[in-house]
Structure formats: C-alpha cells, structure tokens
Amino acid sequence: MAGKIAKADVTIVGGGIVGLCLAGFLAEEGRDVVLVDNGQIGGSNANAGSLHVQMQSRFMRLYPENVPGMERQLHLYPKAVRFWQEFERKLGADFELKKKGGLMVAENADQLDFLRRKAERERQLGLEVEILEEPELRRLAPYLGPAAFGAELCLDEGKLNPLRCNAAIRKWILGLGVRIIDGENVEDASRDQQRFVVATDKGSRIESGALVLAAAVGTQKIAQRFGVNVPTRAEPLHMNITEPTTPMIEHLVQHADRMITLKQFSTGQIVIGGGWPADLAGDREHPTVRLDSMIANATLACHIAPVIGPLRIIRTWAGINTSVDGKGVLGPIPSVPGLFFAVPGDAGYTLGPLSARMVADMVVDRNPGEDMEDYRPERFAA
Ligand SMILES: Cc1cc2nc3c(=O)[nH]c(=O)nc-3n(C[C@H](O)[C@H](O)[C@H](O)COP(=O)(O)OP(=O)(O)OC[C@H]3O[C@@H](n4cnc5c(N)ncnc54)[C@H](O)[C@@H]3O)c2cc1C
Fold first, then answer.
1. Residue 249 φ/ψ, nearest 5 degrees
2. Which of 28, 204, 214, 317 has the most CB atoms less than 10 A away?
3. How many CB atoms lie within 10 A of CB 230?
4. What DSSP state is assigned to residue 277?
5. CA–CA separation, 178 vs 360, rounded Å?
6. Residue 159 near ligand 1, beta carbon < 6 Å
7. Does 26 fall in a domain?
8. Is the beta carbon of 215 within 6 A of some atom in ligand 1?
9. Low pLDDT (below 50) residues in the chain
10. What is the count of structural domains for the chain?
11. 220: CA distance to ligand 1 center in Å?
12. Alpha helix stretches (DSSP H) within the chain
C-alpha cells in the first residue's frame, strides 16, 4: 500500500494497544478504518504484561505533582482489568490473563507505614486492598526472601502476555477489514474542507473525515500541526526475562520503595521490569538496553525473591513508554472538529483497551460512560 492514496472514514495514527483496539471497535461500528504505524518499539510491544490497579510507588515518587490526577483516575484501573477479561472472552483468544492479585512488598516498618497510608487512601477512593504482616505474607508468598517485611495486597491485579494479546487483536481487526499501513511514519497531517489529510514518509496519503492520534510519544509532533499542545514525553525503559522454571510466583510483585515488577508467565519464565532506564540511541532514537539497568534490576529481583537466583536471563530488551501528566489524554478537541486523542494514562497497557473503547464511543458520538472532563486534550497550555 506504500505510496498509495487511500480514503477512509477514520484514520488512526499509532498501532499500539490503543490504536489496534480503537480500529477494531470502530470497524465493528461500521466505520472504514485505516491504521498507520511506523514500527518503532513503543510501549505495547515492549511492556511487562502487568495489570496494575493499586497506585504504583514508582510514579508517586517520580512525579509527586501527578498524584492528585492519579487518584482521580484510580477507579478506571479495576474497570480496565475487568474490560481486559471481557475482551479476552469476546475475542475467544488466550491472552494468558491471570488475576491472582498483586503484592507491593515493604522491607521495613517505614515502608509498611507508607503502604498503610497509601492503602487507606486507596480504600477511600474505592479500591479493595489490604495490608499483610510478615507471617501472613510468608504463607501467601513463600517465594519471597528474608527481605520481605510486609506488603499491600490488591486482589484485582494480574498479568497477561502482551505479545499474545497484540497478535490476537491484530488478527481480529484484520478480520474486520481494517487496512493497516505498517512501517510508515506520519510526517504531515492537515485539515482541509472538513477532510483530514495524512501523509507518510513513504508517500502514502490518506484522506478521512476523522483523525485519531493514538501515537503515544509521537502524538505531540502531529498535534502541533493543528496548533494543539499535548506534551508527551519519551521514557525509554528496560526489561528482562529468564529461562522457564516450575510455577512458583503467581502474583504480580512490586516494591514499596524501589523500582521493580516481577511475575511469572504461563510459560514458566520470570519477567523482570519496573522502570529501569534504557537509552535512545542513534539517528532513529532506537530504544537500547543498558547494562547497569540489567544488573540493578536483576539484583533487586534476586534480593526480593532469591528463589529465582539460579535462573539465567535469556533476553533483555527496551521500549519507549510515554508519559504526560499521569492521566489519559482522551477524546475530541473543540478547536479542530473531527480530531481525537487517544493516549492512555500511566500503566497504559492496563488502560489501553478501555481507553480505546471510550474514545471509540466519542468518535461515534456515544456517551463513553465516564466523566471525561479530566482527560480533555485541551487542558495543556498552548
Ligand atoms: C518496558 C515497558 C514496560 C511496561 N510495562 C507495563 C506494564 O507491565 N503494564 C502496563 O499497564 N503498562 C506498561 N507499560 C506502559 C505501556 O506499555 C504503554 O503505556 C502502552 O503500551 C501505550 O500504548 P499506546 O498504544 O498508547 O502506545 P504505543 O504502544 O507506544 O504505540 C504507539 C505507536 O505509535 C507509533 N507512532 C508514533 N508516532 C508515529 C508516527 N508519526 N507515524 C506512525 N506511527 C507512529 C509508534 O511507533 C507506536 O507503535 C510499559 C512500557 C514499557 C516501555
């Protein structure tokens, strides 16, 4: 399709979890959809597969100014996990989705106090969470090492296999007739007489009545073409996966004070991440692993769960996470009729399908069933 001219009802820029789901939901509504993706390693094909619900201590520490916003969208997370479960059933696919709960581990009394305060606030905001003292924690999670002192447990948390999800969703949307233009970067976008025109670096040109920007960190540059400021930031992050072993870790494990997520996939492999930095290298700003992140991330994992110590790391990789102000940027913008934004908030893979559903509803002029005030794209200064 490179270098071709296409016409569509809706053009979506960005083929991550949000763009893919949006394309499917809109095609189900009878819309003719073209999806363009440049093939960079974004969040959706690099992420750790954690289904987050409780507030992540990493984000609270790094971006304290975003905490009020995180609290306001907290109720979306358990809803997003339920949405993933329904979505798996609807597609008849196997996402390897398991909702066995998430533990945020504390190593001392101060950290457990922090978790107590966090849990109290989260309960006020409607989450179901509880604090576990050491004996109870050891019964529930015998794989944790001597460093574990207590934890916050959120039973709504879980895990899935993103590679399986992405493949199943892509197959679903192709079956619905979505046209995908892969490996082409959207360089230009404009609006002329009620029609949007999107042009790629390989010479493709797509005209449509509506345009949705689901391009994560790439959103800012395209939005500027329409005089809109959406300050997306690239956050390159590091991941590791071990060789398979017998099933032993059923929870999603995090830490109250340090950067880690740790879980075991159905394959038996342990996936270790949690926000350690990667680099953007070369002209193409390719996400690239860092040895210091690999060592620190793996060392911390063994400290928390020494039982994984003998396992070999068989693969590391990096991907680009996108952060804005902690909250999603979702919906239309009044200054440019027909232009929509679809950038999820923090833990965007968890929120991806639900965010896409809400934006799809707005594109077809249906009530998304949530107060969208907090997610308005025009909230940033010009
Ligand atoms: C290493 C890592 C681990 C993570 N772990 C988790 C986790 O465990 N749980 C969780 O909930 N979240 C996690 N996240 C965050 C999550 O992956 C992202 O928030 C989510 O995938 C974002 O989805 P998206 O569709 O908005 O964006 P992306 O998946 O980034 O997709 C955007 C797409 O748009 C394309 N694009 C951008 N600009 C253009 C352009 N101009 N033209 C054409 N295409 C363009 C990009 O190439 C990309 O393919 C993690 C992120 C990373 C990097």
1. -120, 105
2. 214
3. 20
4. B
5. 14
6. no
7. yes
8. yes
9. none
10. 2
11. 14
12. 17-28, 57-62, 67-72, 76-91, 109-124, 134-140, 162-175, 219-224, 291-304, 348-363
